[in-house]
Design goal:
Shape: flat
Number of domains: 1
Number of helices: 3
Keywords: Signal
Strand content: under 5%
Helix content: over 70%
């Protein structure tokens, strides 16, 4: 869990140019999948927290 948080902080701290280079290296589809996976995990976490309360 902590590794994912650190990874997110590193990803968010990247400058626009570095992000573009990263996207170019990994491929646009992989980046889209990563972002959608992160968004999906955040949504599912929020949903489960709301259900618990």
């Amino acid at each position: 869990m902590w590794g994912l948080i650190i990874l997110a902080k590193v990803f968010l701290s990247l400058h626009a140019n570095q992000t573009l280079i990263l996207v170019g290296i990994t491929g646009r589809q992989d980046t889209k999948n990563l972002v959608s996976a992160l968004m999906h995990s955040k949504r599912s976490t929020r949903g489960s927290l709301e259900k618990r309360v």
